[in-house]
Amino acid sequence: MYNGIGASRGIGIGHICRIIEHDLSFEAKMVEDTEAEKKRFQKAIDSFVEDTNAMAEDIRKNIGPKEAEILLGHAVMMSDPAMSGEMFKMIDSGQCAESALTAVCDMFIGMFQNMEDEMMRQRASDIADVKVSVLKKLLGIKDINISKVAQGTVLVCKDLTPSMTSQIVKENVAGIITEVGGNTSHSAILARALEIPAVLSVPGIVDIVSDNDTAIVDGTEGEVFINPDGDILSKYLKKREDYLAKKAELQKFIGKETKTADGETLELFCNIGTPRDAKKARECDGEGIGLFRTEFLFMDTTYYPTEEEQFEAYKEAVETMEYRTVIIRTLDIGGDKDIPYLGLKKEENPFLGYRAVRYCLGNVEDYKIQLRAIIRASAYGKVKIMVPLVTTVDEMRSVKKLVEEIKEELRDEKIPFDNGIEVGCMVETASASLIADLLAKEADFFSIGTNDLAQYTMAVDRGNADVAYLYSTFQPSVLRSIKYIIECANAAGIPVGMCGEAAADPLMIPLLMSFGLDEYSVNPVLVLTARCIISKWTKAEADVLAAKVMAMDTKEEIVATLKAASKE
Ligand code: PEP
Ligand code: MG
């Protein structure tokens, strides 16, 4: 048995398909038969163009036309004589196809990389992508097409990138195992959205397993079994059946209000990353959007999206939610999320660097584009603005000042918006937590980002497997912090929600009920689980449990006590 981090619940059983990073080195040699070499090169290009067009078509159908365009652009690029003509000329002079491809691509990459225009600089990374794909064709390296894997496949890879996740057909992938990544890495969040059991951070797993090995992925406990014996296999087949039966049971909570066992109504919202996810939130019976992570809109393009493009995206989410609350978080870039065209500097400590609201307030003209788009969308429903990574009162004041300026402009331009649009603060740093009483005077609402709060309170990189044993929202320090933030919000009379992953944790829910949390924002697929857990606890029971664990000194003791009291 191998241990890792259970990042997406459930039991997956299937056959392994490894996704391996290939060595692309080659020996640059001179060729005699240049005609044959040109033919070999043309064949590689044709095959690349054919695959790319097919992949673009899949993406167009599964994701959307805009996303497909990027790939279509790659195919067009390789068919462009300005580029391939140069390569053929080099082959004519006796160079091998690999050398010609690399030399010409590198020349263009160098040229585009140094341009002022961000869109042009993005061309450099497009050409780098094309170079790698055509080189693989020439070297006879076959990439696994994730979208075409057979039903019952367990994907094993070093890291699951968002682009790999976007190719996954959820009916075919039974489980995911990776060597790196933590519970709150964005890949983990995507795996949960797809409802595929996943265990992350299993050291060396890619080399331990072989293709077609049988694997059991227990995403609830964070355990992996390779080629298990008959007893283990039948135990886990049964466990899978029980898990699926329990999941089916949850359907009875659909369409119900979110109420505690003693009848108090709470709000159960969803976290989303795209306007399309808002549909999923509705299908899953989410009562609003507690966190719209807007950075995916910025990551999916090759340039800073225009006000109109952003407005359309926010409006789509708002209209989908039909007057239910939609909390839109302004750009939270940096840390583990890079956007190449923004040209962010490489930093020694990206999680402590120029990111989120710090970056936005340093680039006010761009920030105003986003704020304007959000404020305009407020004319179509109930929109709230949320500011990430706040550490000082001044940051909140600066954002609020910009919001007022924009409202004034829109008024002058006779563009409609909600004059009462609220501006809330994400409390996710140790500093924000310690000054929660002061921030509560500035903010219209709080939302606790426990993914980062645990990271910044414990001084633990949330994606680093070596220190994952410290990264937990059940650490006494993190629990005290959560309790204090909620108390400050309650004392100031502002609503307080939680949009970190802890809001959906069955062990955490009774504590949050006791502390007085108003709104729980969870991954859409966890709405019914959270509603079910909330329905099982009275405030009085939750208070007794909270008093007990808040007097304990270790995470281990706390988790064991919560597990023993669990009503799951
Ligand atoms: C958080 O930090 O808890 C959060 C919800 O934001 P993100 O995971 O996007 O950093
Ligand atoms: Mg965060």
Could you please describe the fold and organization of this structure?
With 568 residues, the chain is α/β, with parallel strands linked by helices. It has three domains: 1-22 and 143-233, Glucose Oxidase, domain 1, CATH 3.50.30; 24-139, Enzyme I, Chain A, domain 2 (Orthogonal Bundle), CATH 1.10.274.10; 266-536, Phosphoenolpyruvate-binding domains (TIM Barrel, Alpha-Beta Barrel), CATH 3.20.20.60. It is 49% helix and 13% strand. The chain has 23 helices and 16 strands. It has helices at residues 34-62, 65-79, 81-92, 97-113, 118-138, 162-167, 186-193, 205-208, 230-249, 275-283, 295-299, 307-320, 356-362, 364-377, 393-412, 430-434, 436-442, 450-458, 476-492, 509-515, 527-536, 539-550, 555-565, and strands spanning 2-3, 5-8, 11-19, 153-157, 173-178, 198-200, 214-218, 223-226, 267-272, 289-293, 325-329, 382-387, 422-427, 446-448, 496-498, 519-522. The strands form two sheets. It has an eight-stranded mixed sheet with strand order 1-8-7-3-4-5-6-2. Strands 9-10-11-12-13-14-15-16 form an eight-stranded parallel beta barrel, surrounded by seven helices. A hairpin with a 4-residue loop joins strand 7 (214-218) and strand 8 (223-226). Helix 1 (34-62) packs across helix 5 and helix 20 crosses helix 22 (539-550). The longest helix is centred in the first third of the chain and has 29 residues, at 34-62. The radius of gyration is 25 Å and the shape is globular. The protein starts with a strand and ends with a helix. The model has no long low-confidence stretch (mean pLDDT 92). The structure holds phosphoenolpyruvate (PEP) and magnesium ion. Magnesium ion is lined by residues 388, 428, 449, 451-452.
